[in-house]
Q: What sequence folds into this?
């Protein structure tokens, strides 16, 4: 899977993740005042290829289908929170 | 010609030369695609995956109090470093740059989780528990 940084940024924004720039760009999901999920990508606006999308998907605790739907837009914050709740991560 | 195949959890990229080489190794032309892919998968596992131990984070603020095992995978144009213990990763054009990125990421994550340690959900809490058990501040 090859992914554009812009697509990922839009997906994170759609989920209401908080973006924090350090050496890399971190995306953090909060719910109920707690940090629930944290992932990151390198800076730059190019393609995220090779294993990078796989690592980001794993950190977001999504399976391949869910991650594809996140990038394609159907998966929204409420469904994502339900997925995390079902996994005992909320 | 390049063939991209998903095999289990691995995404395989088979070049023409690799495929011919493997086909030759099998010594018969009737091998199923599954057998061929299994052979390639095993070969790749031996050649391109290895485990090393990170002993230093290359940051004056922190040190590791024990070795941290990571898996290094060489994908040709990309090398990745991954910790199964933390889920953190580093990526680079070569092994050293991937290790350097991994080290920097671990340190960033450590301080970020430390800043928020009063309000962590289950997953970040486990992450923090592990990192704080292996990292000492100088």
A:
């Amino acid at each position: 899977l090859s992914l554009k940084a812009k697509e990922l940024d839009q997906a994170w924004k759609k989920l209401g993740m908080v973006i924090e720039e350090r050496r890399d760009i971190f995306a953090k999901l909060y719910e109920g005042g707690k940090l629930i999920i944290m992932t990151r990508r390198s800076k730059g606006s190019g393609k995220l290829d090779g294993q990078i999308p796989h690592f980001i998907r794993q950190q977001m605790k999504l399976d391949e289908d869910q991650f594809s739907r996140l990038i394609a837009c159907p998966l929204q914050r409420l469904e994502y929170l339900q997925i995390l709740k079902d996994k005992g991560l909320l | 010609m390049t063939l991209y195949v998903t095999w289990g959890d691995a995404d395989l990229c088979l070049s023409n030369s690799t495929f011919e080489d493997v086909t030759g190794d099998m010594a018969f032309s009737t091998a199923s695609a599954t057998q061929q892919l299994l052979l390639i998968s095993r070969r790749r596992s031996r050649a391109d995956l290895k485990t090393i131990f990170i002993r230093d984070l290359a940051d004056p603020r922190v040190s590791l109090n024990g070795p941290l095992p990571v898996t290094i995978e060489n994908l040709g144009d990309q090398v990745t470093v991954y910790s199964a213990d933390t889920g953190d990763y580093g990526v680079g054009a070569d092994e050293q740059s991937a290790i350097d990125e991994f080290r920097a990421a671990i340190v960033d994550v450590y301080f970020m989780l430390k800043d928020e340690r009063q309000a962590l959900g289950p997953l970040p809490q486990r992450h923090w528990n592990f990192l704080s058990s292996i990292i000492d501040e100088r």
Summary: The beta strands of chain B are 2-7, 10-15, 49-54, 62-64, 68-74, 79-82, 89-92, 135-137. The first strand of chain B starts at residue 2 and ends at 7.
